[in-house]
Amino acid sequence: MPAGATSAGHRLVFLGPPGAGKGTQARDLALEWKVPQVSTGDMLREAVAKQTPLGRQAKATMDQGALVPDDVIVGLIAERLREGDAAGGFILDGFPRTLAQAEALERLLRDLGQPLTRVIFFDVSEPELLRRLTGRRVCRECGSTFHLTSAPPRRSGVCDKCGGRLYQRDDDSEATVRHRLEVYTRQTAPLLDYYQSRNLLSSVPGEGDVEAIRAAVRRVSEPAR
Ligand code: AP5
Prior knowledge:
Elements: E1 11-15, H1 22-33, E2 37-39, H2 40-49, H3 53-64, H4 70-81, E3 90-93, H5 99-112, E4 118-123, H6 126-134, E5 136-139, E6 145-147, E7 166-167, H7 174-188, H8 191-196, E8 201-205, H9 210-221
Parallel strand pairs: 1-3, 1-4, 2-3, 4-8
Antiparallel strand pairs: 5-6, 5-7
Helix pairs in contact: 2-3, 4-5, 6-7
The structure holds BIS(adenosine)-5'-pentaphosphate.
């Protein structure tokens, strides 16, 4: 963290189905709060692009819209959260996604003495998720996200923020998106009860103006007084 900067100390999970806007919100709030955005999807895609052993192992699973094995993901997160920049807080984006991952996270954060401060669920209807994902375009250079109709770049195929080339993720075809939504319902949605029973869950409406959603996330992230 740069000298003089202060961290908000948030230790958050952004939870929600594919396309709910977790990445869009996490990217900007992480900058604002000076905490790292820890996205398992981005970490895996980077490993795929670099053709590391992890990337080679994960690619086929990701292309099918299935989940990478829990032990692989938990190992990745355990290593990432032990890095110095996570000591002042973090936003977990796309993790945990199964009960086994949630339990492993709880143990890890207990060991680190850094329990979660809040879990934020982004509530978005299924037709809207399909519309968002099939029209999503991502910058190859900086990871910024656009949408062909609702958040189009100023120049077609070019990132507004860094001038990088935009591409469509391999798992954003309609058939794969439908499968990802089924996987979410079966394996990830049970985490809502898990976190509700620990009094950690807050829900925000995930549809509408991006800035209004961000303001709602800010509100529910504040520690209870
Ligand atoms: P991952 O990359 O985590 O994908 P995901 O959870 O499916 O989430 P997305 O990135 O698709 O959606 P998002 O909620 O971030 O939405 P976004 O902000 O981009 O995972 C990919 C794969 O990696 C998995 O399928 C799995 O194989 C593997 N993996 C990852 N983590 C794993 C784990 N923990 N365990 C096992 N396997 C794992 O927004 C979507 C679109 O909507 C964009 O175009 C955006 O511009 C637009 N948009 C956003 N907000 C709004 C708004 N308010 N109004 C209109 N449009 C909006």
